[in-house]
Structure formats: structure tokens, C-alpha cells
Amino acid sequence: MTPKVSVIVPAYRCEATIEQSVRSALSGTVADIEVVAVNDASDDDTAAILDALMREDARVRVITLAENGGAANARNVGVREARADRIAFLDSDDLWEPDKLERQLAAMDETGAALLFTAARCIDGDGNPTGKVFRVPKTVTADRLLFGNDIVTSTVLLRRETALAHPMERSDLHEDLICWYRILRDGNTAAGIDAPLARYRVTKGSKAGNKRRSAAMMRNTYRYLGVGPFKRSVCFLCYCLHGVKRYWL
């Protein structure tokens, strides 16, 4: 039987968190899912952990890549291999609340939006809440994303045809923003659920945790998207203010 949702999990050197992440998807109120875990040539115990999960639960499928190609490529591989007509992204260190997919599926049917996203509760490297919650608006536009990205990848649900038409690009940039921007620029709509239905791990080594690295990547992301110099400067200032508000206020 075709599952309702294919959950795409890019996995690279994530032995400490991958099992908990996958189990958070498997234990949700929507049981009719498949988890497509893409092992991106990990050289730690990630492969063994995924193999054990696959043997334990038939809903888990593991795809092993011979060479590391980055998170964007791993997600694209997972989307191509997915069997459901709806795709959810879950990063290998993030977690879902049990009713996440149930609420998003209902909202997708109600709104007709091509892309659904939710608020997220921040956790530290040990999984403890930091006290910070990323709130989200009811909707966003492509242009609005340039001034501050409110969409956390692990909260996204979208139709497979949309994901196939807009594959992720450039793991060395903000590949998630590039993807959402192109989806919305092409006339699709997005809908936000302002409830923290995912737990988003923020560590010093992550893009979100390393603010200088993230800022430099954002400048290059604007250039990659063809944003002009003046607008790029305005967007970057707003992006910085958005980050201050998100992480510190």
C-alpha cells in the first residue's frame, strides 16, 4: 500500500541523534508513513543504526550513497525514491511532536497550500529546551523570505510533485531558502501553523549555531538568486535583525 507521507532524512555522521530522530517520526499519530533515510557516505555508526531500525520497522528504508554529496543532494535522492505523494523533511538531529503530520495534512487539505511549515522549539546539543521558540506567520511569500527565513526545514510538508520540480541546490549555501524561494516564486502558496510541532537542534557547529558562517552564506545565497546590490544590502540588514530577534530577543 502507498504510504500517506514519505519522510526524507539525510544522514551524515549522525550516530548520536539519528535513532531518536527517526523514532520521533515513526511514533507519530500518522502511522501510514515511510521513512526514507539517505546515508550520505557516513564513516561512523550511522549505517549500523539505520540498518537496525530498518530490521525493526518495515516502514524504514535506507539508501546508502557511495560518496558524500551534501544534505541537498541527499534530500533530492530521497524525494526521487519516495513512494508517497506528500513529502516531509526531517533532519537527522531534529525531532517531531507526535501530531505534527496529522495537523499538517489537515491544514494542507484545508488551505490547498503547496508547502506547509510550523513553529519550532529550540533544543541544545543534549536535546534540552533552550527556552526559545521560532514562531511563524500564517503565510510567507518568496520576497518575504529574502528578509528572513521563517521556514525550518524539519517542519516542512509539501507535495512530491512540487519537490521534484524544485530540487534542492547548493549545500554550501542556504539550500533550504533557495528551494522555498523558487517554489513560492513560481506561484505556489505556503501556510504556517504557529505551534511548535518540531524540536530544532541548535549547536555551535550547525549553520544556525555559527552566526558568522551563516551570514557569509546568506550573502552568497543572495548573489546566487540574482538579487541586485541595493536590494541585497537591504535584505541582509533585515536578515541580521531577524536573526537577532529570533535567537536573542
Structure summarized in a few sentences:
The chain has 249 residues and is α/β, with parallel strands linked by helices. The chain is built from nine helices and nine strands.
How are the secondary structure elements laid out?
Layout: E1 5-11, H1 18-26, E2 33-39, H2 46-56, E3 60-64, H3 71-81, E4 86-89, E5 95-96, H4 100-111, E6 115-123, E7 129-134, H5 142-146, E8 157-159, H6 160-165, H7 175-185, E9 190-201, H8 211-224, H9 229-247
Parallel strand pairs: 1-2, 1-4, 2-3, 6-9
Antiparallel strand pairs: 4-8, 5-9, 6-7, 6-8
Keywords:
249 residues; alpha/beta; Spore Coat Polysaccharide Biosynthesis Protein SpsA, Chain A; 9-stranded mixed sheet; 9 helices
CATH superfamily: Spore Coat Polysaccharide Biosynthesis Protein SpsA, Chain A
**Tally of separate helices:** 9
Tell me the domain tally: 1
Alpha-carbon Rg, integer: 17 Å
Overall pLDDT confidence: 94
Amount of beta strand: 15-25%
| Structural class determined from secondary elements | alpha/beta
Count every beta strand, where a strand is a DSSP E run of 2 or more residues.
9
Low-pLDDT segments, ≥5 res: none
* CATH topology assignment: Spore Coat Polysaccharide Biosynthesis Protein SpsA, Chain A
N-to-C terminal Cα separation, in Å?
Answer: 47 Å
H/E series, N to C?
EHEHEHEEHEEHEHHEHH
The profile of the biggest β sheet is:
9 strands, mixed
Overall 3D geometry?
Answer: globular
Task: Kindly provide the name of the CATH class.
Answer: Alpha Beta
Helix content: 25-40%
CATH architecture: Alpha-Beta Complex
